[in-house]
Amino acid sequence: MRDAGGQWPRPGTFVPQPGTRKHRVLRFDAQHPGDAVAAQALLAGLPEMVVEAGQPAGNLANTLSLWYELSEYTLDGIASALVKQGFHLDNGWYARFMRAVIASAEETQLRNMYGPQRLIKKSQDIYSKAWDHHLHGDHDDTPPDLRQDK
């Protein structure tokens, strides 16, 4: 990413984060200026959640920075709960797109965390046993005792 001018990465852009501790930026609709402050007070009461208000100047005036553990919360779950409580999120195409990308990434990570683990060392045995039961192109129906040369 470009470093000149201090503008990259843009504030609030999605940067992949390894591990389960996530930092996300949640944008609120500019038409409802009190939503970010009220949501901050509501979310700050949740366990394992760290919430900071965005900067009052610039494009971060109606944003919240969230830090949470993926095993406890997801951005999609947080956003859905806030909308049900009557908060208005930014519904511009960029904000919706970023929420969808983050939701997909978090869902995939959760599925990989809690899904069954693949046994890598046993996979060769599994394939060879399956191949033993498969009819091969050179299958011979002759009983083994008649196949031997005498």
3D structure, described in words:
The chain has a three-stranded antiparallel beta sheet with strand order 1-3-2, covered by helices on one side. The protein has helices at residues 35-44, 75-84, 93-114, 123-132, 144-147, and strands at 21-27, 49-53, 63-69. The protein has a single domain (4-114), classed as Alpha-Beta Plaits. With 150 residues, it is an alpha+beta fold.
Short description:
Residues 1-20 are annotated as: Disordered. Helices cover 37% and strands 13% of the residues.
Shape label = rod-shaped
Q: Nearest-angstrom radius of gyration? A: 27 Å
Annotation field: number of helices: 5
**Domains, number:** 1
Report the CATH topology name: Alpha-Beta Plaits
Task: Indicate the CATH architecture.
Answer: 2-Layer Sandwich
DSSP strand tally: 3
Strand order of the largest sheet: 1-3-2
Q: What is the helical fraction, as a range of percent?
A: 25-40%
Task: For the record, give the distance between the C-alpha atoms at the N and C termini, rounded to a whole number.
Answer: 75 Å
Strand percentage lies at 5-15%
Which series of helices and strands comes N to C?
A: EHEEHHHH
- The CATH class turns out to be Alpha Beta
Oligomerization state of this entry? single chain
The poorly predicted ranges are: 1-9
Give the mean pLDDT.
Answer: 80
**Which secondary-structure class do the elements indicate?**
alpha+beta
Biggest sheet statistics: 3 strands, antiparallel
